[in-house]
Specification:
Elements lengths: L11 E4 L22 H13 L7 E5 L2 E4 L5 H4 L2 H4 L5 H13 L3
Parallel strand pairs: 1-2
Antiparallel strand pairs: 2-3
């Protein structure tokens, strides 16, 4: 439900795998993944915050690009071709955790 009288907008940012203080770039060693950058995720967040016409929008940030994802193309946006990686999200997670546990 939308309340036009209130100055509230709801959008979603879906960042891809991004090296941070929790998961360093070295944790992704040997894991075939198209890493996002913090800067790219920030640009996508700014887009959602600054454009006051955006309400109920979702932006997917993967690698060095971000794209608005409409509900009709949500599943297609997560295909291997779009993400630029061959591994599933579970396989990437397993590789990153294994590297973290090994102290990489």
């Amino acid at each position: 439900m939308t309340y036009p009288a209130l100055p509230i907008r709801v959008n979603a940012l879906c960042p891809g795998w991004t090296p941070t203080a929790l998961t360093l770039a070295s944790h992704y060693a040997g894991v075939n993944v198209n890493l996002s950058t913090v800067e790219n995720n920030a640009r996508a967040a700014v887009l959602l915050m600054c454009d006051q016409q955006r309400h109920g929008h979702m932006v997917l940030s993967v690698g060095n690009a971000y794209r608005e994802v409409e509900e009709a193309v949500l599943l297609a946006a997560m295909t291997k071709e779009i993400r630029g990686q061959q591994l599933t999200e579970d396989e990437i997670c397993e590789g990153v955790i294994a590297n973290m546990m090994a102290g990489v």
